[in-house]
Amino acid sequence: MNILLLGIGNVLWADEGFGVRVIERLQKSYRFPDGVNVMDGGTQGVYLVEHVQAADVLIVFDAIDTACRPAP
Q: Where are the domains of the chain?
């Protein structure tokens, strides 16, 4: 099984690269078995399609600024 942990984000934008920072922390703090790929996708967009299609399981870390208030 091919598992992809994919961080998306821009460290210079409103989300402060949330997904990128998650991936950095995972790579620094953990070792993953064969078949688990940890990838900083940054802002590569369409260039990530090949990696996403190759994954059997995909976990994406990302954040957006919706300017909405949290639900009560």
A: 3-61
